[in-house]
Every structure is written in C-alpha cells, then in structure tokens.
Amino acid sequence: MAEDESTLYFGYGSNLDIDDWNIWCEEKGVDPSGIVELGPCWLPDHRLKFHYRSFRREGGAADVIPAGCGHAVPGVLFSLTENALANMDRKEGHPNTYRRTTVNVILPDGASTEAITYRLQPAKQGEYVPPTSYYVSLIEGGLNKRKLPIGDLKNAIENSDYSYPVKHLFVYGTLMQDQVRYETLRQHTTEGHRNAHAPGTLYHLGAYPGMLTQPEGRVLGEVHELSNVFLGLQSLDRVEGFYGFDSTDSLFQRTLMEIEVAGEKAWAWTYIYNGTMDDAVVLASGDWRTANS
C-alpha cells in the first residue's frame, strides 16, 4: 500500500467507540492516528452474533455472519492508513481469531462500496456467549451517536435469529397507492402509509420510473411498513428484477437509504435503477404520480 493510500473498513462492534480504540492503542503502545470516520453504513445479508468468548471482554464479542433476505447490520465506514490497518489487524486478532474479509456495504444515499471487515474464524465459533453490559454499551452508544437502529444488537443479545432492523420500504413508482402494482405491495404491508422523499433524480422509463441517487435531487414517494420483511422483500425482489447483491444483471438494485418523512430522517429499503439513462427523460417534479395523472 502506498503511503498516501487508505483502506475502507466497516466497523460494527467495539470500534464504534473511538475511546475504546484509543485505550487499546495506549495499552499496546501504538499510534492511534490514521483512522478517519466517513459515516454510517450497512452490511446487507448479514446479522450480528455473539458466539465467541473474549477473555479481554470477559464475555461474548460481536461477529457478523451471512444471513438471508432483509437482514442488515448497521455500522460505520472508516478510512484506515497503512499503519492504522496494521494496528486494526492486531486488535482484531487477524488472521487467527478474526479474519479480514472483503464485503460490500451500503451508504446513506443508497450507493454501495467495497470495504474490509473482520469476521470470526469458523473454528472459533461456538455456542452463544452473553456479552457484558459494558461491551454492549460500547456498541449501543456508537449506534445511537450515529442515529442507527439498535434492533439488530438487541436480537443478537437475545440470541434470536429473527433480526430485521429496517421494516420500512420507500416506493416512488408503480408500487405506490393507486398505481398498477400497488396490490402486490399491499399484500405485504400494514395499514396506512406516509408521504416521504429521497435524495435522487427520477427518470421516465416508459411504463415505470427509475431513480438514481444524487444528493441535490429529490424523489417523492411513500413509505410503507412491511408486515413480514423476509417474505415482503422476496416478493418485491421478483417484481423489481433484483437478483441479489452479488449480481450485476439486476434491473433494479435493492438498497437502504436515508429518507425524509415529516421533516425527520429515517432508514428504508428501496429499489434504484441499475441500468443506463442515456435515452431516459428526467422527471423534473420528482413525482411519478404527476407524470401519469
């Protein structure tokens, strides 16, 4: 790694607390600099797990494991210099305890990027080990500081496999109320919805619209609560032509976005267009309903 290069790192456990990092560095006599916080993000198709006893933590330590549709682990994206990466490897016990691995994480605007994270070596995985209240406070405090939900953490503490921290879906096209595919959505949602908007640009693609994420634009739509996240997203993935986060052939890419509802920020699943917009017409209003009224 060149001196001016850096590595993107997804942190989800005790490293959400910068004081914990500084304490460890002081104990080991190493330089704590070189770690820069870039912002909140999500690791899709994973969930948090406590199945390793850490002697330093005197209880369970966090791990992320692959999981099915609708699961996602909230965390923070950091930039690490070469020195900080070497120290992080040492802190996480790479490669003997936790191993460094490459993942794709979702940013607040719905875009994704490649980053490294640390996952427990399979040989180290065991039965559930409850974490200490102090260790939990490091993670919970870090999530609260970035206004990220703590549902996944609570489920992991309870050793539950059911962990769907984001239950809301933002729709802006044919899935909206009174649109042609609304009945498909209605089967998987609770009663009622709220108006919302997301940062992006809306394009007219003929029979349906497509959104691309852009910070200066605004796309109007609705936010609905999914009654069963797993079944709902599975059904809607088929409607939107989403074949998984590893696929490059999806018509729409399912992602998580920070949307605005009644003047407040909220996280929601949504689908952004995965094709080119060379011949598409921009809907300046950002509202599919006015374009088809």
What does it look like?
With about 290 residues, the chain is an alpha+beta fold. It folds into 2 domains: about 5-155, Gamma-glutamyl cyclotransferase-like (Hypothetical upf0131 protein ytfp, Roll), CATH 3.10.490; about 170-290, Roll (Hypothetical upf0131 protein ytfp), CATH 3.10.490. It contains 7 helices and 15 strands. It has helices spanning about 20-30, 80-90, 135-145, 150-155, 180-185, 230-240, 290, and strands at about 5-10, 35-45, 45-55, 60-65, 70-80, 100-105, 110-120, 170, 195-200, 200-205, 210, 220-225, 250-260, 265-275, 280. A 3-stranded antiparallel sheet has the order 1-5-2. A 3-stranded antiparallel sheet has the order 8-12-9, with no helix packed on it. The longest helix has 13 residues, at about 135-145. It is elongated. The N and C termini lie far apart (about 55 Å). The model has no long low-confidence stretch (mean pLDDT about 95).
